[in-house]
Specification:
This protein is mainly α and about 60 residues long. The chain has a domain at about 15-45. Helices cover about 50% and strands about 5% of the residues. A two-stranded antiparallel sheet has the order 1-2.
Length: about 60
């Protein structure tokens, strides 16, 4: 088991307090590890975006 847990918060404020407590109690290594995981997830989504975009103008307006 990898130690992941699902937490259900009743309010956004409760979630924010939990996250801030985690940040205070975590080590720099844990924070960088979390950042790396977020960046890897973001990069998975970015691969579906075309690298080149084209603007086509018809009758004076961009399409």
């Amino acid at each position: 088991m990898n130690g992941k847990k699902i937490r259900i918060f009743k309010t956004f404020q409760e979630q924010e307090i939990h996250h801030l407590q985690w940040m205070i109690n975590s080590t720099p290594k844990e924070r960088f590890s979390a950042l790396l995981k977020m960046q890897q997830l973001t990069n998975k989504f970015k691969k579906n975006i075309p690298a080149k975009r084209t603007i086509i103008i018809h009758n004076g307006s961009a399409q």
